[in-house]
Give the backbone structure.
Amino acid sequence: MKVLGRRLTFYLVVAIAAITVDFLLPRVLPGNPVDAVLSHMQGATVTKASLQALKEQFGGDTKTGVAGQYVHFWHGLFTGQLGVSTSEGMAPVTAVIRGALPWTLGLVGLATLLSFLLGTLIGVLVAWRRGTWLDQLLPITTFFQAAPYFFLAFLAIDLFAVKLGWFPSEGARGITDFPALNWTYASDVLYHAVLPAATIVIASAAGWIVGMRNVMVTTMDEDYVLIAQAKGLPKKRVIWYAARNAILPSVSSFSLAIGFVVSGALLTEVVFSYPGLGFILLTAVQQADYSLLQGIFLVITLAVLIVNLIADFVYVFLDPRTRQEA
Amino acid sequence: MALSTSTGLGAAPAADDGTGKPGAVPAAPRRGRRPRLRLPRSPKVLIGLALILVFLVVAVFGSTLAPYDPSRTFSLTESFPLPPSAHHLLGTTQQQQDVLSQLLVGTRSTVLVAFIAGMIATILSVVIGVTAGYQGRLADDVLSMLANFFLVLPALPLLIVIFGFLKTNQGGHDLLIGVVIALTGWAWGARVLRAQTLSLRNRDYVDAARISGERSWRIITFEIMPNLVPIMAASFLFTVLYAVGTYTALAFLGLVNPNHWSWGSELFYAQVAGGVSAGYWWLFIPPGLAVALLGTALALVNFGIDEFINPRLRADGVSRRRARRARRAGRTALPRRFVLGVTPVVRPEVPETAGGAPPGQRPVADLITTDHGKTRRGRRGSGQPGSGL
């Protein structure tokens, strides 16, 4: 399909550009990352080879020059060698990320899906019952939309973890619990995920509500909705017809939203000490662990691009017009 | 702050549809008379504007208003944050500094960064969006690609990496931070402006201007730009909103010099002090609430602009109170709620005092829509006139 091919090419180009940006940043920006990393490696012995490797990674005088370093960077990318993490005891960056990624994927993925579904549903409802008390929801959602995720996380911890003691305030599982495929472990993980997930859902649902409501209001003025109602179709069917069309812009604006949601979710992880990418990102920043920093940025960017691609595919699937144009 | 795409979604197609509002997109701006832009005088917009004004005042006079020096340590013996008291209205931090003073002083940096970022990003988005929309072809392809690139790139992780390398810990670089945030925040506005420029470019009056031999820059500045003002305003507010959140997030993560007071750096210290799990609410509620309030204010005004661009978004033309008042006055009250939106079916409820009202005493359009037409609405309780943009 032509449309999908075009989108695929676009995301490929963006991915290549993002990887290049990731490569260039430590070289373009002022400061000397190699020295900074070295100063954090006091425990480890620095051999000539490892110094050379650092210069390869962050820029410096090497035999190969910048072009050679760029090739090397790509090579490392494909072979999964992103350097070692100084803040995690010289473990390979890929291993550190692999340990954190499932937590983020689970938490952010589920929360985003939930907030999209909930927000869209509420948006339809608010648009349909326009002029009733439901309109009061809009200013409230505005507040949640404007409040930083981590502030909501603070509030959630203060209220539900500290004051009421219903949920744990940090971590992804109990200290004594070890990964196992049984109900005890699973329920513990879920229990720990409730507050962070709820924070992300509440903070991000507002955007979907407003977006869906605004399009739905416009869609309800369309002739086909009028006809559907004039024919005497049940209300539910009419809402369904209108909502089916109104959801398209929500899907297409997914790309814009997902960046915000992921950013907010990373901060939420920081507040909850949730051992995902956001949490190790903070460690990486604090400890000047640049390899890890670069690695996390790559993973997040690629993940966001993939989600975008999926959203685009869904859009093409939902809207036959995009298929006809091709 | 998730997406605020509402302008982008509904604006472009709705601007010239049948609702025929001369205010939103004037068919042909007459020479020498600027089109007047009036925001709907809804309480939402007024509250938003008032709040923004308050924050601006605090940003300017914050250091004067602050009761103490925000960095002053009040006690060397106390090692826990003290709750609010008469001396310290919002309590003290772990370092025994006055929270209220930090809040007031920190407003300046936060607001400054946000408005710098908003301004630069808006200029960028206008230049890029209008060029892409007006020039078309290659310029459009390249610029749209650029905008889309920045749109799909997750901004905060990128900024974290940039600031991680930048080492801004040495001093407060409000301008630098604003510029960097603006570089990641212009794309949304550029996309919306491009779409609108594209639709304006093919209007008859622009064609007429072109045929009569006007230069491109003149057409862009005098024929097209005036019609983009509401979208520019919306995009400016959106970017300011985005910048407030982003700057606060960066400072919260400790990526900006924590001794340069801002709301984010207060939250940073609150986190460092373990303020949340220890229940020191006065450490994180004031700055967090300030961010949320400023954001809400910006979003409220943005709603107003959205409704200005697309009148169908308005909650309802007739509020309950108004309907009741109309009924009491013996007029036909319009229904509180239109089953199918505003335009197609108007089914007035039959008032209890049957047949009391001569229909058409007031034009329907006058009641439903707000202040677009030339007809002035009757004075209502809403008070001040909507401020100009």
